[in-house]
Amino acid sequence: MKFSCPKCKSKLEIQKTFNKKMHVSCEKCGIEDLLEYSKNIDEVFLEFLSRFDEGLVTKKGVSENLKDEGIIRDEKEIKEMIEKNNPDKTTESILFSKRDYISQYKVLKNPEPKMGSSVEELGLDESISNHLKEIGIENFYKFQQEAIEEVLFGENIVIEAPTASGKTEAFLIPVIQKIKKESTGGVFALFVYPTKALSRDQYPKILKLAEKIGISVQVFDGDTEQIERREILENPPQVLITNFDVLHYHLWHQTKFSSLLSSVRILVVDEAHVYSGIFGSNVHYIVKRLKRICSNKIQFIAASATLEDAKNFCEQLFGEKMNIIKGSGKKGQTDFVMLFPSLRTQRALMVDLTKKMTEKNHKTMIFNNSHLNSELLAIQAKKQKINIKVHRAGLMANYRKSVEQEFKDDKLQAISCTPTLELGIDVGNVDCVISSTIPINRLTQRIGRAARKGQRGYAFLALGNDPISQYYKNHPDDYFEDVEKTYIDPKNPFVEEFQVLAMACDKPISKHELKEHDEVIKEHLKQGNLVMNNNRIIANFDKITTLLNDYSIRGIGKSIDIFLNEKKVGDRILPIALEELHKDAIYFLAGTRYRVKDFGYPQKNFAKLERISRDYPYYTKALTEEWPTIETVFERRKAFGIEVAFCKLHIEKKVYGYVNIELGQEVTQGQKVLLDTPLEYDFITKGIVFHAPRPINQIKKSEDEDYTEASGYHATEHVVIEGSNMITGGVSQDLGGISLGTSGLIFIYDGAIGGNGASKALFDRFESALERSMFIVKECPCKNEAGCPRCTFSYRCGNNNEFLHKHSALEILQRINKGEETKLIEPTEGDRPLV
């Protein structure tokens, strides 16, 4: 609905703000007002007209108050940020729009990459040198030269360089040189990518150089046709492109393909940062298994644009010593703006930025951090007539490919994507990148998508309506210090248990082999999963085949298959599937919402979807209860004065209902609906537990002491998880939390079955998380007793964000930061969890 400005007749903007007000403004003449919230937008407009007639609406009527409260930035401060950077009119209009708080503005300019030697000076095979000259490469960058020399010398290396900086050439050229000089037949080099899409995207680039030199290259993955498979098995290529899922499957099945792997001399792993968490823990073992069956010592080459501690991470991943080589890339300058949506929601800000960019014909990628947010953004952007499509994991491969091609061919203005497109898939020219909050090194990789052809680029970090975003609004410099921490946990008991079984399937285990897994092997022998045969340990295939077939290296737990009109359209792993696919849940798929009409769990692992009206006003969020039991304490320490323990935990989880949340509203509470039959699931994981001090001052003021205390602990649990985000490298999305009534016990655990290392990262940096949590609550301007989405509320809360007490949480966190001492006590069944 359009409303006209009473002063200049231009279009009025009417937006609901984060603190439930209505902001009415005219962008052309600048008049604005802040009114009380009303669902009826006509009433808001009529009140605005009445106040205008009374002379209460002026050009600076709201702005001065908003500046004083820190809701928008003073123009003088913005001009100081700009200095001599000379932003264009589009960027300027965003900086001075008075609709968001401008936390940071800077122009990003990459330094010119250091040049290395000429092609002739490296002593490459003549056919390689000649081809490089033909395609216009006369000189290498310095980091490319270093990588080529190290690989030719036989060293294991990690190449850390920005997107589109020439990493592929840095490892491809020396590998081809080694094949030319040393190959005696069979597969010499494995190039492993995290997804089939990326493998297929990189294949033409690798093939173009290799075939000119007479080197054979093939892709072998789940999409390889049967005829191509036969050709690969009969005439193995010298370079084989694949993924770790394929290696895992064929190794333990001892297929003909697995026999090709014994000749491998080099393993190249691109986008190494992807192998964090459960996936990386499994990859660690698959690499170990590959070493067992190879007749040669393998040389390792890794490449990544975004790793904080690339050397140590890759040494843990591969179990080998690695050398680090760092490089830079060449691209156009990029205007970077960090914005905090003070007067609207994060999604409204991201849609508005997309509209401004696409109206100027700037091709735009919008990165969201979840499936749900990518779908919701696309739905709202389409309502603004933006030519946009969704690209995320879980959509069919041919659909994602068509989206990539349409964008590359300029038939699509914008893509709403998840981190799937952080990887190096070629989507053509990009002018602008808009991103939700992520660690700076991953943001840098996303921004690297823009301005690759030397044009002026645009990059926007849209902070959210959440605690960590409010912290960065006030402390923008800290954002640039908070680098992502990649982590794996090879001692995850479930990963180790399955991967040791897989090792025995790959190749019998000799009696004195794999001593580091002795306990696991003994347990498998006891259970009959493994058996002794002629002094060797072999797999009992009859007993374990189903077990291994059900196992996913990208996550532990059984999958729920999702069907629409009797056709499988996706799957989700337990336990998250219980929260997203319960009966009557609203599920998003490729920009369309569906209702779950049938959920087969626990008898069968399926969910059936049905279509709903486009006008249906809600989506859903699950209500859950959880109960923790400490099974083993691995480590204890003091953080300030409180005792914190890192533990093995048994979590009993129950989904007992859901809330309906209005579409288009970034709210954290909704209308409750209870399930007829609750869904239950229990699992083992790792996590931390600590005993928070009592909020004595708040308890004294309160009429309901138990409520004040328990709600304070619940709010503290939320804020500590959000406060840990970025300090531990953006892992809060991998964490769950439980506060146990008035006991003061707070649990924060890995959401992945068996644990993925996220809570250990928090345990190691717990003081920083506690300090930041205090500032999040202290600096939030909201006056609500319970707090708000920018301090105590959590979008992941399974309790509809009820029973929260901001003032108690602040007192608890202040007591912790001042060094008040507490000791851990065991939880009892009488403690009611507030999750």
Automatic annotation (TrEMBL):
Residues 148-325 form the Helicase ATP-binding domain. Keywords: ATP-binding, Helicase, Hydrolase, Nucleotide-binding. One of its GO terms (biological process) is interstrand cross-link repair. Residues 345-494 form the Helicase C-terminal domain. The keyword Nucleotide-binding applies. The keyword Glycoprotein does not apply. InterPro entries: DEAD/DEAH_box_helicase_dom (IPR011545), Helicase_ATP-bd (IPR014001), Helicase_C-like (IPR001650), MZB (IPR018973), P-loop_NTPase (IPR027417). Pfam families: DEAD, Helicase_C, MZB. GO terms for molecular function: 3'-5' DNA helicase activity; ATP binding; nucleic acid binding. This is DEAD/DEAH box helicase. It comes from Candidatus Nitrosarchaeum limnium BG20.
